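FORM 12-B: Structure-to-Sequence Request
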């Protein structure tokens, strides 16, 4: 799983204050919570992660999520499949 978020961080770069930036612990918590829910589709997991981040972390302007499954049961010699989704405000 990979996560990329975009935000205007100019204030944080000037103040050096944690309250002026994105809370990475909160992002990790959201991802962990959503990944713990069983789903049939990678697309569903990615959308839940994106929706939760956009709803809970107001500073985030854009989010990109990549979710992978190793050794998918698709009847072929495939090491991994991956879904990438993104959304912006």
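FORM 12-B RESPONSE
SEQUENCE OUT:
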């Amino acid at each position: 799983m990979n996560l990329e978020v975009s935000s205007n961080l100019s204030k944080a770069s000037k103040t050096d204050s944690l309250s002026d930036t994105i809370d990475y612990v909160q992002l990790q918590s959201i991802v962990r919570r959503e990944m713990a829910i069983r789903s049939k589709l990678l697309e569903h997991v990615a959308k839940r992660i994106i929706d939760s981040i956009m709803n809970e972390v107001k500073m985030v302007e854009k989010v990109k999520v990549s979710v992978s499954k190793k050794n998918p049961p698709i009847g072929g010699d495939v090491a991994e499949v991956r879904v990438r989704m993104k959304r912006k405000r």
